[in-house]
Amino acid sequence: MSKIQVKDVNGVRVLILNRPEKRNAIDLEMYTQLTEYLIQGNSDNDIRAFMIRGQVDCFTAGNDLKDFLKHTDIDPQHPAFRFLFTLLDITKPIVAAVAGAAVGIGTTLLLHCDLVYADKSAKFQLPFVHLALVPEAASSLLLSQIVGPQKAAELLLLGDSFDTEAAHKLNIINEILPSETLFDFAFTQASKLASMPPQAMQASRRLMRSNNDAIRAQMHAELEEFSTRLKSDEAKTRFHAFLNKKNRKQA
């Protein structure tokens, strides 16, 4: 079964992270699939909106670190960063539905979505510094704009997890929903967006995202620093400690 499921319904392309045995940790194959589905959907006139979701108990635990460590040569064509730049370039609206863990990329990708819904089980975390890395997806810029510089520093530098109530107060998510209605509600909202006049929708998004050049420049700056940090001794130490701890828990 594919680790990324795709369904096209009522003009909405639904992308489902489907690797529950790994808590939807995203490997490079999954990044490549997500990118291809987004690019193809963005050029398909029958697709007018996207929805991204995980399972009922997990959005994503973040990057698959073992897979990431096998490919430490980072550039804009690296599958993970190509996915992030694709998110930036998508011209059609994106809705996200979050249940359970939303770690690292699971939180930063939400900053590029138009509407984000979550249930009370959602837990968000930006543990980049914990892993001796730096933020990605322009979160070092976007988060300050959304929540303010001091709160952004708390979330990015300390890297502690925060719950749905906090995410809602910080305007990272639009609404908190019951678990049993989360995915249906998010799809309904995506369908509403897909039913709007498409040229007006895309033009409105373009106007609302007039700072995309600054976001792109920040993403390139993050990528360069991320590449350096990923190869550093302190990152290797942190990664191995994390993976050893994870292996002990699974033993």
Describe the structure.
This protein has helices at 28-43, 65-69, 79-89, 105-108, 139-147, 149-158, 164-169, 182-195, 198-208, 212-230, 233-250, and strands spanning 4-9, 12-17, 49-53, 58-60, 94-98, 101-103, 115-118, 123-125, 162-163, 175-176. The protein is α/β, with parallel strands linked by helices and 251 residues long. A six-stranded mixed sheet has the order 1-2-3-5-7-10, with helices on both faces. A four-stranded mixed sheet has the order 4-6-8-9. Helix 3 (79-89) packs antiparallel against helix 10 (212-230), helix 5 (139-147) crosses helix 6 (149-158) and helix 5 (139-147) packs across helix 10 (212-230). The model has no long low-confidence stretch (mean pLDDT 95).
